[in-house]
């Protein structure tokens, strides 16, 4: 698996864009409580795992799981604490733990596995105890919903997302599939919450601006898109997108869909 957003500053981008208060609120909604053992699948630089550890408290335990040794090294250096550990594992294989988990958390991971999402979830819950919680969250219409831009930019955005799907197994519609994955795996007491993850109007927060420009300069540039509307000139497309992104008149939003369910006791 080649990570779509890999570049030298990616660790810093991941840490900046993760909003601790949002993670804590979503974990509370999902039913993650003090004393639980929770598995964070696709933990990256570990910031979310650290927040989940705060939610489960001193008597709880959090494990961050990721494929990348460099990400895990950064996570351990930044967030090492009692009751918090980071483990290298390829989630394309079942994760087998000697101790079962009370909850499994998967957020912003399935979008990178368009063809194998159900397999990834099944592998992630291999060591979830019967009656345990599964919490999955991902974006829908990822980066697709804009107003105030030109038609040629709209055509290019659609073309980029098509290329990302075909060339990089990326799924901009992962969020809408989560409920069905939960049903297909036989989970019970399923609930869904929807909120705006990206909501840009008026002046743009500098962190959001930096995050989105990084996406364009790395993922979009390497998507395989030919930028036909700009005669193949990526820099021309980038210039127009910057004008759109930082124009206080523009409106951009992306829904985040969170789904929780309980593993059957049988």
UniProtKB/TrEMBL annotation:
Sample GO molecular function, one term? transferase activity
Any keyword Transferase?
A: yes
Superkingdom, according to UniProt?
Answer: Bacteria
Q: Return the PANTHER family for the record.
A: TRANS-ACONITATE 2-METHYLTRANSFERASE-RELATED
- Domain Methyltransferase residues, every copy: 38-132
The uppermost taxa in this organism's lineage are: Bacteria, Pseudomonadati, Thermodesulfobacteriota, Desulfuromonadia, Desulfuromonadales
Q: Which Pfam families match?
A: Methyltransf_25 (PF13649)
This protein's name: Methyltransferase domain-containing protein
UniProt keywords (A-Z) are:
Transferase
Species name for this entry?
Geothermobacter hydrogeniphilus
Query: Would the keyword DNA-binding turn up in this protein's UniProt record?
Result: no
